[in-house]
């Protein structure tokens, strides 16, 4: 039996019949069709199903991503804006603070901080553990709940170093970000710390000029301007340095001082020791942050005799030659008023001041009376708080019942407590020609005080200057004299009050100096808290032995710094017209 060739060909093609491939070339060039059967057909179908499933999976993934993108860009835009607003509101910028010569006292430094958008955190516990590797001081038991709160903005760590920022960045933690914020920096450390004050962690002022001028500093920052203080950085260094030396020499517990322009009231320097570094406020003690020059109020002792003699001369009750009985102590009930170095004789008004007689001062004050004394001190600004641009300003203390005994003791600086800045401003009014000055730590554009109220006449002012000069030349303030300048001043030594009366060995020793006396420009005040006498002072710890030489050294340095010409008639007493 014959077998057709086509049937063998079909078997060789494994069940595939291709039309048009017959022997003889019939139907060549016609379209080809492939027919699958059995297993191979199923394999092709399975491949098609897999491609369809993969395509469907990709479509689902893209749909999820699209929904998430819409959620982030549209629905959560308000939350994100709120988080940004929080950052913006807390990123407070502050203007630089400069001294009167343009030297920077406070500035800003951009530093990073770490925050978290807790909605983006996958695992709060794992995130907390990894962050603790960079910041070992973080407590994970407190951090985990914060990272799980669902809020858009949570602080993790403020003011970190660049290396810490890099380490956190390498962790690649979702929901963790950084914010660059302005950190307040005080490049001079402790210098003028009590004037400048400091800010909190959100860069808001909470002490000193930083607090008083908080809004103004933010406004100035927007205008790219600076705040200029009356402080002279050179004078600040000089005063602080001399105060530290005196504290060490006389083993004093504390010290305070200031330098004031007697014509404008500008404070060129203000120091209170011990002090602090405003860059590291948390490491300081409350006592270090206490401003003794403005917030502290003290019984100033014999420096108050300046006001007593000025009051007597201005009132017309006395002149320079008026005489007062200082032969014996004044006894009132169980109290006794006596002199430290008694002259035991009648003294003229100028001698009362020269020898710092408590007895003579008490008799001058009783001659004028309590009403006149209180009115005069009030005109000088000694009975109300100073209007200084600092929040740390003390309220003066004086008796509610201002009787005869109070009149006597206040005449020599006991029974009334004022701040050093009040004392300086009141004395400035007596030596600058007789007009009041408003103390300030802000730089002023004018050089003379045209808005001050007249409290004494120019004649009285000249007489007071003459008396102050005489104290340095021939009285208790001899150690305040310097080689090139006419210095005038008054010593002050007050016993500190205690639970059972005054403590005789706990002294507040001070000296108030003015120069040059022929044309007063600057006042220098120094106060030492409980100084101890030395071999060189023969055991004395009074103002004339401790504070007066400190003022002299400050004045010598100021004369050089400010290029003040030496006094022409150095060594001669200023002639006052009586």
Describe what this molecule looks like in 3D.
The protein is elongated and about 145 Å long. Strands 1, 2, 3, 4 and 7 form a 5-stranded mixed beta sheet that branches. 38% of the residues lie in helices and 17% in strands. By secondary structure, it is α+β, with helices and mostly antiparallel strands.
Shape: elongated
Ends distance: 167 Å
The percentage of residues in β strands lies in: 15-25%
Computed over alpha carbons, the radius of gyration is 42 Å
- The secondary structure category is alpha+beta
Q: How does CATH name the architecture of one domain?
A: 3-Layer(aba) Sandwich
The helix content is 25-40%
Our count of helices gives 19
- Beta strand count: 16
Major beta sheet, specifics? 5 strands, mixed
Q: Return the average pLDDT rounded to an integer.
A: 86
Which regions have little confidence, pLDDT < 50, spanning 5+ residues?
1-31, 77-90, 571-578
CATH superfamily descriptor of one domain: DD-peptidase/beta-lactamase superfamily
CATH topology of one domain: Beta-lactamase
The CATH class of one domain: Alpha Beta
């Amino acid at each position: 039996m014959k077998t057709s060739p086509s049937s063998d060909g079909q078997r060789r093609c494994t069940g595939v019949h291709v039309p048009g491939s017959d022997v003889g070339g019939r139907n060549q060039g016609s379209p080809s069709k492939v027919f699958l059967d059995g297993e191979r057909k199923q394999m092709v179908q399975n491949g098609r199903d897999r491609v369809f499933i993969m395509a469907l999976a990709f479509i689902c993934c893209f749909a999820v991503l699209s929904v998430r993108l819409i959620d982030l860009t549209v629905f959560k835009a308000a939350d994100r804006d709120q988080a940004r607003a929080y950052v913006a509101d807390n990123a407070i910028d502050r203007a630089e603070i400069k001294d009167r010569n343009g030297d920077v006292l406070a500035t800003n430094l951009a530093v990073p901080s770490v925050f978290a958008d807790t909605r983006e955190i996958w695992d709060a516990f794992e995130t907390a553990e990894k962050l603790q590797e960079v910041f070992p001081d973080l407590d994970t038991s407190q951090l985990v709940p914060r990272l799980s709160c669902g809020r858009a903005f949570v602080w993790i760590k403020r003011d970190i170093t660049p290396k810490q920022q890099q380490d956190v960045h390498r962790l690649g933690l979702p929901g963790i970000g950084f914010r660059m914020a302005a950190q307040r920096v005080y490049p001079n450390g402790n210098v003028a710390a009590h004037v400048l004050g400091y800010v909190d962690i959100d860069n808001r002022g909470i002490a000193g000029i930083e607090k008083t001028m908080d809004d103004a500093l933010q406004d100035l920052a927007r205008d790219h301007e600076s705040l200029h203080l009356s402080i002279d950085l050179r004078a600040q260094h000089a005063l602080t340095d001399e105060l530290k030396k005196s504290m060490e020499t006389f083993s004093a517990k504390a010290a305070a001082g200031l330098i004031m322009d007697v014509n404008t009231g500008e404070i060129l320097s203000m120091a209170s020791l011990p002090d602090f570094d405003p860059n590291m406020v948390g490491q300081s003690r409350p006592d270090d942050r206490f401003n003794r020059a403005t917030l502290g109020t003290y019984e100033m002792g014999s420096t108050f005799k300046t006001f007593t003699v000025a009051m007597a001369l201005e009132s017309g009750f006395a002149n320079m030659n008026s005489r007062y009985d200082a032969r014996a102590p004044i006894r009132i009930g169980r109290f006794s008023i006596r002199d430290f170095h008694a002259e035991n004789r009648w003294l003229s008004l100028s001698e009362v001041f020269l020898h710092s007689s408590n007895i003579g001062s008490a008799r001058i004050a009783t001659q004028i009376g309590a009403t006149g004394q209180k009115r005069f001190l009030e005109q000088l600004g000694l009975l109300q708080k100073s209007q200084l641009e600092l929040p740390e300003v003390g309220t003066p203390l004086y008796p509610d019942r201002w009787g005869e005994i109070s009149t006597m003791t206040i005449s020599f600086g006991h029974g009334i407590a004022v701040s050093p800045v009040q004392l300086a401003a009141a004395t400035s009014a007596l030596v600058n020609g007789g007009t009041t000055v408003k103390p300030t730590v802000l730089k002023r554009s004018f050089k003379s005080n045209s808005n001050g109220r007249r409290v004494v006449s120019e004649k009285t002012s000249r007489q007071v200057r003459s008396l102050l000069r005489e104290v340095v030349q021939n009285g208790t303030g001899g150690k305040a004299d310097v080689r090139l300048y006419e210095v005038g001043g008054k010593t002050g030594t007050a016993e500190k009050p205690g639970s059972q009366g005054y403590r005789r060995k706990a002294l507040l020793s001070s000296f108030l100096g003015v120069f040059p006396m022929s044309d007063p420009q600057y006042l220098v005040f120094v106060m030492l808290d409980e100084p101890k006498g030395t071999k060189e002072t023969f055991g004395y710890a009074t103002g004339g032995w401790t504070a007066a030489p400190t003022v002299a050294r400050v004045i010598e340095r100021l004369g050089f710094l400010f290029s003040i010409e030496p006094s022409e008639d150095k060594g001669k007493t200023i002639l006052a017209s009586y």
